[in-house]
Amino acid sequence: MASIVDIANSALIDMGEPAINSLDQNTERAVTIKAVFDSQLDWLLEQHPWNFAKARVALAPLAEAPLYGFSRAFQLPADFLALIDPETQLAQYRIENNQLLCDADQLSINYTRRVSNPEDMPPSFRETLAALIGSKVAKSITGSDDARVKLEGFFKDRLRTAKGLNANSSGQEEPERPDLFIRARGGR
Fold this sequence. Notes:
Layout: H1 4-15, H2 28-46, E1 54-59, E2 72-75, E3 80-84, E4 94-96, E5 99-102, E6 107-113, H3 123-142, H4 145-168, H5 178-184
Antiparallel strand pairs: 1-6, 2-5, 3-6, 4-5
Helix pairs in contact: 1-3, 2-3, 3-4
């Protein structure tokens, strides 16, 4: 079973550092990784529409409309990180104060949600996260800028691989307007 400590240890091993037993250990390695873990996880989730982190929800308009600019406000889910493909449904919108402002009467969105359980993440994502965290803390833990550069390279390679694997498991989406797609390709 994958755990946060496994991800941390993968980062440490990539740096050539000894493993830890817990992020609550009173060691420089554990304290440093714990300090950046959640922010780096959220950052990585936000960077790409990962299949395992996608969610769909129908939102009800809030009773109080925005002061100006849009006619409706919708409360975003507590685990919301990023909106996925808003252009398909919303001509104009703005996200402010954890609310989505727009002129729609009702709204269903696809979004990237916060996923904190490593068991819910594919191995390629966990390894990418480990390299990202490692690149963030390598200089602090090892004192070596070379270690940071090495981990940045690991991160870029793993990110490319993880995105490719994510795309392979996405399936093919139907174009919203197949008639336009066919005409654009020279069909009738």
